[in-house]
Amino acid sequence: MSFRLRFFMIGAMTLMSEVQGQRRRCSEEISDIRKEISSLGAMQDDLLHALTDLRLGIESAVTVAAGSLPEDCSVAKKRGAWGPFQMIAPPGIGPRMVRCDMLTDGGGWTVALWREPVMKTAGFGERDGPSGDTLHRDSPRVSSYPTRSVKHDLSARPPAEKDPQRPSRNDILPDERHPAGDAGDEETWYRRRRLRRSSQGSSRELLRESFNRTWVEYKDGFGHHTGEYWIGNDVLHALTSASAEPWEALILLNDFRGQNATAAYGQFRVSDEGSGYRLMAAQYDDKRSTAGDGLAFHHRRSFSTYDRDNDEYHGSHCGLDYGAGWWFHQCHVSLLTGAGTSDAQRGTEGPHTLHWRNWKGEEALHSAALLIRPKNQL
Ligand SMILES: *[C@@H]1O[C@H](CO)[C@@H](O)[C@H](O)[C@H]1NC(C)=O
Ligand SMILES: *[C@@H]1O[C@H](CO)[C@@H](O)[C@H](O)[C@H]1NC(C)=O
Predict the structure, then answer these.
(1) Contacts of 16 (CB under 8 A, 6+ apart)
(2) What are the φ/ψ torsions at residue 204 (nearest 5 degrees)?
């Protein structure tokens, strides 16, 4: 063998053993990587388990928190709450914010229905869909709680009515001698607001929630707890039928002239969805009421909306005809979900408006509330 060949063979053998060594190292590394991958998989499983535990933990915490929430405003009051807005958890229903009346007639009332116009302000003019989120929450009328709640909206009397000679605040025109930007007093504020609104071409306008809603919307509730709202038929049923304990109702009404009236019922109950959310409004209390029994006609009637006809007017569909959800019969005497009218339309009349026939005929009312509470809670 020549020296050169021997040298080549040694070289080749060295190379081969090196290649084998590298291959061994490679396969070792591959197996290491495999091990790491499988341990990563185990870690992923652990992570998934941990996440599942966390989720279950959060869910049970929420359940416990909901369990510790008051079922209604009367329970909230017993626990010392006094504010107008409370988070409640009606039996079998998720937590939700509602308005409470903690003052009228002993308080502890859960507000099932709230109707009250909210003044439209600059920047909120683009609203067209009904959404409480666009309502101006700091409206003087709404924020004057608790006084206004005791008197149910006496403050809602339009300024013009106090003195017909004096222009209403909404009519105050820009005063040349006091250009906007001087004193930060109330009149200036109103004047600025008036200016902004007139530049938008939408003066004297008041926002009202639409109550021409579907069956499902009335079932779940709609609107916003700081503005006009319907608490939800499922909530009405859950609250008023949770125990054998009877519930009572108090209806508060205000017209556009600042007059008020009430209707008190010793018994108020709403059945479940399967039986059409039938209304039980009995024991009208003559001594505590001034508005007349506008619910007698609706006692034992099922609920109807424009998309669900449960009324007793064959060949007609009250919910669709009047654009409201209510315990229609043939069709109605009172309609607290009727169309809300704005200040500019004062004096509007008609069976489609928010009205209480026993008190003011078909005259559109300014505001209304339906309050409910367990009867023997005091
Ligand atoms: C209703 O108005 C009368 C005066 O017309 C007033 O004395 C009374 O306090 C008002 N009641 C409520 C609940 O607002
Ligand atoms: C209520 O809404 C429905 C559906 O949008 C509509 O068909 C109906 O005309 C409305 N009713 C009124 C009185 O506005």
Answers:
(1) none
(2) 55, 25
Residues 57 and 179 in one domain: no
Which range marks the domain in which residue 30 is found? Answer: 1-68
Indicate the number of domains in the chain: 2
Closest residue by Cα to atom 12, ligand 2, is 323
Note the pLDDT tens digit of each residue in 96-122: 999 999 999 999 999 999 999 876 654
Contact 216, 234 (CB under 8 A): no
User: How many other CB atoms sit within 10 Å of the CB of residue 169?
Assistant: 18
152 CB within 6 A, ligand 1:
yes
Nearest-ligand number for the alpha carbon of 338: 2
Which of 68, 83, 111 lies at the terminal end of a domain, its last residue?
68
Q: What is the pLDDT of residue 344?
A: 65
Cα gap 206→355, rounded to integer Å = 18
pLDDT tens-digit map of 156-166: 333 333 333 33
Query: Taking 90 as the threshold, does the pLDDT of residue 77 lie above it?
Result: yes
pLDDT confidence bin for 231, thresholds 50/70/90: very high
Could you tell me if 52 and 79 lie in one domain?
no
* Res 188: pLDDT: 43
The reply to whether ligand 2 has any atom less than 6 angstroms from the CB of 305 is: no
- In short, whether 353's Cβ falls inside 6 Å of ligand 2 is no
Among the candidates 68, 95, 114, a domain finishes at 68
